[in-house]
Amino acid sequence: MTMLSAAMVALSLIACSSTLPISLAQSSPSSQSNRNDPNLARSSSHSQATLTRTANGWQSSTPLSNMFEFQLIDVRQDIPKAVHLGQEHGGLLDYNVVFIGENHRHPGNHLAQTLIYQKMLSQGDRVILSMEQFERDTQATLDAYLAGNIGEWALRHYGRAWDNYRTSYRPMVEMAKKRGLPVIAANAPKDTVVCTGRHGLDVLKKLPNNRKNQVAASFYTPNHGAYFEKFTGAMSHGSSENISQRTLNSYHAQIVRDDTMAESIHLAMQANSSHKVVHLNGHFHSASGLGTVERLKRLRNDKLAVIQPVLVNNPEQPTFSEQDMETGDYLLLIYPLSKEVITDENRQVWRKEVFKRSHPDCSFGSPSPS
Questions:
Q1: Cβ proximity of 99 and 131 under 8 Å
Q2: Which of 36, 110, 207, 240 is the most buried (most CB within 10 A)?
Q3: Cα 38 to the chain's mean position, in Å?
Q4: Whole-angstrom Cα distance, residue 76 to residue 78?
Q5: pLDDT by residue (tens digit) across 319-354?
Q6: For residue 73, which of 232, 65, 61, 237 has the smallest C-alpha distance?
């Protein structure tokens, strides 16, 4: 069985099951002699991993043996503890909005998202599913699918679902559909993001009236602070000084996504005041409470939590650092990914394939000036 087939089987079983599967990462009870060791942290369940303090952070006693396994770690206190989703919600239900960051296409990351959402629903709460993976202009298509008016092919085709929808996101959408819960197409349309990256925020003034609500009503664009320095530093190979206009436009394109997703969550909660939200996005959008998270905080005063994935270096001895603990309220330890490319020759081909230039109409249908 291929990994793709295995993922489809595993996630399909979860979506169809009314009970939670057992944890994917369990360990045997620790010995009595270690119970009072101050360098050890453990959760209330003896079946979970023991966390041991290291020079730079913490190490789990339980290995990650394949790409479907994960460990959810509560790092809200100085002493972290593992969360066993089969037995507890680990405090996640104490929050109005839970951001689950993802390494796109990582099977363990997506399986964890599914189990976390399932756990929150199993407690009887009304939990909206908000998704970066659908864009605002496809909300009507998504609603039609949830209402049973169109089939899944139409959702994927007209809703422009990501090509890994069936293996990564289908189970969560089906859970929401079964319970009559909203699913929010939270992201800005791709053409608005790409065009902002090429021409700056002013290009959005060309949006026709019937498209203006497809992006946030306003954008928070400080040219300073942690998020600005993080994004521009990443774009400029570690330096956030002497920022080029091209990099600044890319930063503003990122903000179009962040502010639009934050506003989408806000509007969904306004319309459904008794509901909570689980929001899925690439981990950069929510790490350290920045990006979409800080923008949502500007819109509403809710209790928010961030789950941040960590690709461990050594799956036999999973570790996370003190610095990792600052990136989320919970960490999701997942199996490392193989390198995309190794040789220079393949790297050149890979770059051409990955960074193919799209050609959106950045006039958005507006007539050219005469």
A1: no
A2: 110
A3: 33
A4: 7
A5: 999 999 999 999 999 999 999 999 999 998 988 888
A6: 61
C-alpha distances (whole Å) from 359 to each of 79, 151, 190 are: 50, 30, 11
Question: Tokens for 127?
Answer: 């939990």
24 pLDDT more than 60: no
d(CA 262, CA 264): 5
Tokens representing residue 1 in the block = 């069985």
Q: What are the Cα distances from residue 128, in Å, to 89, 101, 268?
A: 17, 16, 8
d(CA 12, CA 18): 12
Residue 20 CB neighbours (<10 A) = 14
Chain position carrying tokens 């060309």: 206
Q: Which of 130, 88, 84 is nearest to 276 (CA)?
A: 130
Would you say the pTM of this structure is higher than 0.85?
yes
